Amino acid sequence: MKAQYEPIVPLAYNSFKAAFQEKKEFDYPWHYHPEYELTCILSSHGVRYVGNSIQNFSPDDLILLGPELPHCWKNTGMQQTAASAIVIQWREDFLGKGWMESREFESIRSLLQLSNKGIKFHKATSLKLRENFYKLLKLPAFEKLILLLQILQELAQAKNVQVLCEQGFSYNLNYTDNERINTVYQYIKDHYRQRITLRKMASEVNMSEEYFSRFFSKVMHKSFFTFLNEYRINAASKLLIEADLPVVQVCYSCGYGSIPFFYRQFKKFKGFSPLTYKLQYKEIHTAMPLIV
What is the pLDDT of residues 152-176, one digit of tens each? Predict the structure, then answer.
């Protein structure tokens, strides 16, 4: 899909930008920019799109994105509070030309190179760094810069990180394709519980079925129905974790008309059956120590 270019306006005389964002809901279009971006979600939940990756997000979601990597966060379902996040953005040369070639920044250089595929950090890392994210909003300029480097160094040493776009993601972006993909995102968000046909989806973006199918696969590096099933399974996994519903009800609530097909798709994307996934999640989070 085509992402929308978003220019980032830095704070006057500062080498990077750290901002607190609060909205009724996250509704940004799929977009990209030349800056690195580190986003810590403080409140709300929904679906995160990075390149051709699609995953649920919730509070303490911590993501590092490289330049030009398309992304957006979209809220889903009822939100108990406003959507809020701390977002840090900087250009590659924010410390001058060639700074990353220095030996002192070897670990950070490796981290930023990997960020071109998108990196998701473990919740424990996010919780550990949360106070520092808040400090970035208030510190004087020099202390703020030092703290950002300390945060990046700590992230570079973090364990249990997840690469979001394993094969990488690149595409020649344009406004028209961006609008088409955002239309697809919005339609799936509003109608995933219903039957969605290729004909209907193609008509929403004024394409023939064949052209839409080729267009989507070329941009996203996956078929439309793979993407749709991935969205539905993410929605199903969220229901399994947060709602005390029978697996059969979750199946039908997420747009599936066949229970065996639902089971096959769930195992394909999550690696477990729906019930095993639910039980393992409960076991892990019951055993997880409280981090303060």
Answer: 999 999 988 999 987 767 666 677 8
CA 192, CA 195: separation in Å to the nearest integer?
A: 7
12: pLDDT strictly greater than 50: no
Residues 151, 10 within the same domain: yes
Tell me, what CATH number does 84's domain have?
2.60.120.280
| Domain containing residue 244: CATH number | 1.10.10.60
Asked whether residue 103 is domain-assigned, the answer is yes
Whole-angstrom Cα Rg for the chain:
20
Q: Which domain holds residue 140?
A: 4-163
Q: Identify whether residues 35 and 101 lie together within a single domain.
A: yes
Question: Which bin fits 160, alpha (ψ -120 to 50), beta or left (φ > 0)?
Answer: left
Pairing of strands 4-5, 31-32: parallel
pTM above 0.90, yes or no: no
The residue among 163, 183, 206 that closes a domain is 163
Q: For the chain, how many structural domains are there in total?
A: 2
Q: Are 100 and 66 in contact (CB under 8 A)?
A: no
Cα of 160 vs its chain's centroid, Å? 17
Euclidean distance between CA atoms 52 and 270, whole angstroms? 17
Residues 280/284/285/289 CA torsion (nearest 10 deg): 170
Could you report the per-residue pLDDT of 205-258, keeping only the tens digit for each? 999 999 999 999 988 889 999 999 999 999 999 999 888 789 999 999 999 999
